[in-house]
Write a structure and sequence with these properties.
Its EC number is 5.3.1.6. It is an enzyme of class 5 (isomerase). It holds the Pfam family Rib_5-P_isom_A. The chain is α/β, with parallel strands linked by helices and 261 residues long. The protein folds into two domains: 172 residues, Rossmann fold, CATH 3.40.50; 75 residues, Alpha-Beta Plaits (2-Layer Sandwich), CATH 3.30.70. The strands form four sheets. Strands 2-1-3-6-14-15-16 form a seven-stranded mixed β-sheet, with helices on both faces. A four-stranded antiparallel β-sheet has the order 8-11-7-12. A hairpin with a 5-residue loop joins strand 4 and strand 5. Helix 1 crosses helix 2. It is globular and about 55 Å long. Bound molecules: ribulose-5-phosphate (5RP).
Length: 261
């Protein structure tokens, strides 16, 4: 079975598993969206079934909500939970300050609200997501459908004043039709190549009328759990600067054998 998983998927799996094991009984937990987050939700589902772990989970998309419910995890709304102990989510890119690009799965609006309403955000990612400077991954910007082409023009004008290399903004498609988010909006993917000042760009984008939220997560992530294809896992904490490295390749291989179903 392990042969079926690519090294990237193995890396995502070990990172997700390690982060899911940080969750403690009684916690209110934000559940991210995407393939890495799905591994984490599955592991939490196992813990609920096998250990009797009791958590209240706030999903960041209808996809994640459905998966969590199927696995027997108690799902509540963010307003019911009020505030969360922890959110665990994937990312498309992270830099040395643990600033992120998210939204490759189109869920960054709810993801940002949920992560911001948490004591701690832990990102789970394969090592290939780490970058020196954000921007190689196209930056998702959620816009309302009304007048989206005008919004795109306004975004491009704003980008012309910024320290970015490119300015092309592509409407995300789902087959022949525009992609529609859980909130009924569209997404413009900004192909910028390199974002010189991510903090400033995040503020500028959200000032454009029609923009609902951009995929830059600045000063939101506290910790990253980085998985490697051979089972090694690295934990980095931005608050105290600690780095832990689990070199147990063998442990990673045992984990992969758990995937036999
Ligand atoms: O931001 C996201 C969804 O909006 C995801 O976390 C991000 O796209 C990473 O996805 P994956 O874990 O599948 O690589």
């Amino acid at each position: 079975m392990t042969g079926d998983l690519s090294p990237i998927d193995k890396a995502k799996f070990v990172a997700a598993r390690r982060a899911a094991d940080i969750v403690q009984d009684g916690m209110r937990v934000g559940l991210g969206t995407g393939s890495t987050a799905a591994w984490m939700v599955r592991r939490l589902g196992d813990r609920v079934q096998q250990e009797g772990l009791r958590i209240k989970a706030v999903p960041t998309s209808t996809r994640t909500a459905q998966l969590a419910r199927e696995l027997g995890i108690e799902v509540v709304s963010l307003d019911q939970a009020g505030w969360l102990d922890l959110t665990i989510d994937g990312a498309d890119e992270f830099d040395g300050d643990l600033n992120l690009i998210k939204g490759g799965g189109g869920a960054h609006l709810q993801e940002k609200i949920v992560a911001t309403a948490s004591d701690q955000m832990i990102v789970i990612a394969d090592a290939g997501k780490e970058v020196e400077t954000l921007g190689a991954f196209p930056l998702p910007v959620e816009v309302i459908p009304f007048g989206w082409q005008t919004t795109r023009t306004l975004i491009q004008e704003a980008l012309d004043t910024m320290d970015v290399l490119g300015t092309s903004a592509a409407l995300r498609m789902n087959g022949e039709a525009p992609f529609v988010t859980d909130e009924g909006n569209h997404i413009l993917d900004l192909h910028l190549q390199r974002i010189g000042n991510a903090r400033q760009l995040a503020l500028v984008l959200n000032q454009v009328p029609g923009v609902v939220e951009n995929g830059l997560f600045i000063d939101i992530c506290d910790k990253v759990v980085i998985g490697h294809g051979d089972g090694r896992v690295e934990l980095r904490d931005i608050n105290d600067g600690t780095i832990e490295l689990d070199q147990s390749v063998e442990a990673g291989e045992n984990l992969f054998s758990d995937l036999a179903d």
